[in-house]
Amino acid sequence: xxxxxxxxxxxxxxxxxxxxxxxxxxxxxxxxxxxxxxxxxxxxxxxxxxxxxxxxxxxxxxxxxxxxxxxxxxxxxxxxxxxxxxxxxxxxxxxxxxxxxxxxxxxxxxxxxxxxxxxxxxxxxxxxxxxxxxxxxxxxxxxxxxxxxxxxxxxxxxxxxxxxxxxxxxxxxxxxxxxxxxxxxxxxxxxxxxxxxxxxxxxxxxxxxxxxxxxxxxxxxxxxxxxxxxx
Length: 231
Hints:
Organism: Promicromonospora kroppenstedtii
Radius of gyration: 20 Å
Largest sheet: 2 strands, antiparallel
Number of strands: 4
Keywords: DNA-binding
Domain HTH tetR-type: 28-88
Helix content: 55-70%
Order of helices and strands: HHHHHEEHHHEHHE
Strand order of the largest sheet: 1-2
Pfam families: TetR_N
DNA-binding region: 51-70
CATH architecture of the largest domain: Orthogonal Bundle
């Protein structure tokens, strides 16, 4: 159990808290452990059913360590959402960097290539299910609480813009382009993926080793509708 002090709980101005929460290597490790623990606890019990104490216990820290990094469960929730999307961006660019030119075959995107990309983004069925549960919890919270809804929408806008730019760069590298405006195409792709992930979570879907992410077949067809060769 960490012995980090709880004396800074709820104290100081936002500027003071910003200086206090500078991400030193030790604080970064603490923050990541809290995020890892929260991902599991929130997925199991929901944000209202999970207490800060339960997150701290799962991470092996005190409440002081929690409040040194997050002001509330809601802030922690938003941090989890942003971390997930940024990890997906890194994974997407990493897998496509090493792909062979056979990504494009006869003017269409090779379904096997799409499967490889999806398997990297969500490599484990259990993670996919927990991710879908987390996403649903966050969306419900954002709809019910304007204080969460506003930063959630701002976060979504920033991350979707970054994701669209990343996908556009990748398409250009392979001589491809979207058949419509970039934001609409990205929104359609994300909506299709999130819908499939929710359906899989509701059905307690399990996958055999090596299967692609939920909805891979639908996404493969959608990609070939949204993507074409650059002229």
